[in-house]
């Protein structure tokens, strides 16, 4: 779904819609609390590092999972990723095979992550974690499982978009939160806020008093591909949590955006939709550009007609964060 604009209001002035929906938000928060109260869940026999968030929608979990996975591998681990496979039809546990599976089967994010580590999709995360451990994982990276109690976590990272923070501070549907900030942070081991220096300052000013645990900062930066974006005419589309963030990155690179098309997060990309965008880009003498995650959902026959803009996470204090990872997941 599209994110309602009032979710991004100031927590001090959330607006009348947030107040009106507050009782439903309280019910949602209670439902999350009841689910979490079921217990610590499965201990799979290898360390589990959970990458989650408090918000519904995109906050940068997938780039964080890539960074964590690569850091663990560089240290000598054999990391496997376990994901619910949002948007996919398979229930799992299934090991993702990019040569055989489509985004419609396993979800777009697992397909992207499979380029960096073995990935298991499982609606039952305990079954997915058990499968990963049995297949030789020395550490499990649990993608988006912070509000799921099925697997015991050794380290929980809460990822937040520094520019948006935790929105108006209310729970769904009154705001973007899956649970109250204070409740979620009480279970977390560290916060990773993603954004430029101005966004990080805004985040600290708004939410700093509620943060009483290690806080790391990072920024998403375009991967160097040799492409010179300056002055390039671009028609950009994105079906991610916050498409405008992707469009802003292209503008910062100097691209000339003739038009942007914001799609819903994980929205299926039909041949008709993509061909329409390709035809428009051709008529405007422009490149059709999208995100890596969206590329995973493109019809295979049209995949090489669209230019991706890959981004990677740049952590401000990578060595310190790596030490926390390895303290929670010591090498066997």
Automatic annotation (TrEMBL):
Keywords: ATP-binding, Kinase, Lipid A biosynthesis, Lipid biosynthesis, Lipid metabolism, Nucleotide-binding, Transferase. It comes from Pseudodonghicola xiamenensis. GO terms for biological process: lipid A biosynthetic process; lipopolysaccharide core region biosynthetic process. It comes from the Bacteria. Transfers the gamma-phosphate of ATP to the 4'-position of a tetraacyldisaccharide 1-phosphate intermediate (termed DS-1-P) to form tetraacyldisaccharide 1,4'-bis-phosphate (lipid IVA). The lineage of its organism: Bacteria, Pseudomonadati, Pseudomonadota, Alphaproteobacteria, Rhodobacterales. Coiled coil: none annotated. It is an enzyme of class 2 (transferase). NCBIfam families: lpxK (TIGR00682). GO terms for molecular function: ATP binding; lipid-A 4'-kinase activity. Its EC number is 2.7.1.130. Belongs to the LpxK family. This is Tetraacyldisaccharide 4'-kinase. ATP binds at residues 55-62. One of its GO terms (cellular component) is plasma membrane. It holds the Pfam family LpxK. Pathway: Glycolipid biosynthesis; lipid IV(A) biosynthesis; lipid IV(A) from (3R)-3-hydroxytetradecanoyl-[acyl-carrier-protein] and UDP-N-acetyl-alpha-D-glucosamine: step 6/6. It catalyses: a lipid A disaccharide + ATP = a lipid IVA + ADP + H(+).
């Amino acid at each position: 779904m599209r994110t309602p604009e009032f979710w991004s209001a100031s927590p001090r002035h959330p607006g009348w819609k947030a107040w009106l929906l507050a009782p439903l938000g309280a019910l949602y928060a209670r439902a999350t609390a009841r689910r979490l109260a079921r217990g610590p869940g499965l201990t799979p026999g290898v360390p589990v590092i959970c990458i989650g968030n408090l918000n519904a929608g995109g906050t940068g979990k997938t780039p964080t999972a890539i960074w964590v996975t690569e850091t663990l591998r560089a240290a000598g681990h054999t990391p496997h990723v376990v994901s619910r496979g949002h948007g996919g039809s398979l229930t799992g546990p299934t090991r993702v095979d990019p040569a055989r599976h489509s985004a419609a089967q396993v979800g777009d994010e697992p397909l992207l992550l499979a380029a960096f580590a073995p990935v298991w999709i499982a609606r039952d995360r305990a079954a997915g974690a058990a499968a990963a451990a049995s297949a030789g994982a020395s550490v499990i990276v649990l993608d988006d499982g912070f509000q799921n109690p099925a697997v015991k976590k050794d380290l929980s990272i809460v990822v937040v978009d520094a520019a948006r923070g935790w929105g108006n501070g209310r729970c769904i549907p009154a705001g973007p939160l899956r649970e109250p900030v204070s409740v979620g942070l009480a279970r977390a081991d560290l916060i990773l806020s993603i954004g430029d220096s101005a966004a990080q300052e805004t985040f600290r000013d708004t939410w700093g008093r509620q943060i009483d645990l290690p806080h790391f900062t990072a920024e998403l930066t375009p991967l160097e591909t040799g492409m010179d974006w300056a002055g390039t005419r671009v028609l950009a589309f994105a079906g991610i949590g916050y498409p405008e963030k992707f469009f802003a990155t292209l503008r910062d690179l100097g691209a000339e955006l003739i038009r942007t098309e914001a799609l819903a997060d994980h929205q299926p990309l039909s041949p008709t939709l993509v061909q329409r965008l390709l035809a428009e880009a051709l008529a405007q003498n422009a490149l059709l550009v999208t995100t890596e995650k969206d590329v995973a959902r493109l019809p295979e026959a049209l995949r090489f007609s669209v230019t991706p803009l890959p981004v990677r996470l740049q952590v401000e204090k990578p060595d310190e964060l790596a030490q926390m990872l390895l303290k929670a997941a010591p090498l066997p």
